[in-house]
Amino acid sequence: MTHPPSHAGAVLTIDLDAIAANYRLLCERAGRAAVGAAVKADAYGLGAQRVAPVLAAQGCRHFFVAHLDEGIALRPWLPHDAQIHVLHGPPPGTEEEFLRYRLVPVLNSMVQLSAWRRLARQEGRALPAIVQVDTGMCRLGMPPAEVDAWLDGPAPREGIDLRYLMSHLGCADVTDHPMNRMQLERFRAVRARLPGVPCSFANSSGIFLGEEFTFDLARPGAALYGIAPVDGLANPMHPVVRLQGRIIQSRTVAAGDCVGYGARHRCDAETRIATVAVGYADGWLRSGSGRGVAHIDGVEVRQVGTVSMDTATFDVSAIDPARVQPGMTVDLISPSDPVDAVAARAGTIAYEILTSLGTRFAREYRGGTAAMARCA
Ligand SMILES: *Cc1c(COP(=O)(O)O)cnc(C)c1O
């Protein structure tokens, strides 16, 4: 099919069955650990309300969002027994919202823990929570000194129904990075002080570091969405996203003419240029100017000139002009040119490409019908 089914500048096709297959693959790799799902940032830009029910139908019962508001928005789309964990924990004064919407906070500091405990006292029962400890990433979670103060203090678990002890790996995509083992050792040391508490440690890449990293609950995001979990290795995940950009003009330019803002690309010879209605406002990053590619019926064409807000220009001299007419499409992300490769050309990671992909695109979801039936 060469014509998008709408007037949008691009069609983003999201394969829900591929996400389900990726979930099953991660379950296999995670061994005896349960596998949750990071669906923060609208499921990495792919639509949390569509993605999360598909994962729930696969048996996923632990969902991770970053913000309280993401959790509130997701709650109606998941079965009653699915847990939604809020990674940032409660912003001050919002603790009661967590109860109202049945959200489980990830407590990242003594301040958050004390506030949660205060609410527990009010409610007269222990309240469910995950506690995150920092084991070396220095981003979120209790720093080591705070962990000591917590665990050496009186009744550390009072008021807290501690569902998981959690930490997050900073370098898990690099298999032999020394940080991985250092973080693992630090995590084990805290775990030893909380006997019987289930643990959650691995993100997507962490699952591929081996069994000792997966503990009781893994929290993959990227790999579910088809992003390669291990740097430098063949990607075992199924591709999830296809992006087809629509050609809105094509022209022949003379030798010596320059293309795009800043006149940064000068054509050495007569060149056929196709202008595609996808630009940096759609997440087709300007940093990839002159380095991106598209595919037309499997043939690679180079992006030339500076990427504009709403358009990018491609050298299609090698393509039959009849195939690059306005209304026809080019592949910008596809199984043969996956999001990891697209990201590398723009000098970033696939996570940033997925979460930046535009709100102006037409979105088509494939598969996932079982999930829709189940949650209807
Ligand atoms: C985003 C995130 C994840 C998921 O990470 P991926 O690399 O996408 O698998 C897991 N845990 C935490 C704390 C996160 O912030």
Concise overview:
With 376 residues, this protein is α/β, with parallel strands linked by helices. It has helices spanning 16-29, 40-44, 48-57, 68-74, 95-100, 110-123, 144-152, 178-192, 204-207, 339-345, 350-356, 369-375, and strands at 10-15, 34-35, 37-38, 62-65, 83-86, 103-107, 127-132, 160-166, 199-200, 217-218, 241-253, 258-259, 265-266, 271-276, 293-296, 299-304, 312-315, 329-333, 362-366.
Task: Describe this structure as you would to a colleague.
- The protein is an alpha/beta fold and 376 residues long.
- It folds into two domains: 195 residues, Alpha-Beta Barrel (TIM Barrel); 126 residues, Lyase, Ornithine Decarboxylase, Chain A, domain 1 (Beta Barrel), CATH 2.40.37.
- The protein has twelve helices and 19 strands.
- Strands 1, 11, 14, 15, 16, 17, 18 and 19 form an eight-stranded mixed beta sheet that branches. Strands 3-4-5-6-7-8-9 form a seven-stranded parallel beta sheet.
- β16 and β17 form a beta hairpin.
- α1 crosses α3 and α3 crosses α12.
- The longest helix is centred in the middle third of the chain and has 15 residues.
- It is elongated.
- The chain starts with 9 loop residues before the first strand and ends with a helix.
- Bound molecules: pyridoxal-5'-phosphate.
- The site of pyridoxal-5'-phosphate has 12 residues, from α9.
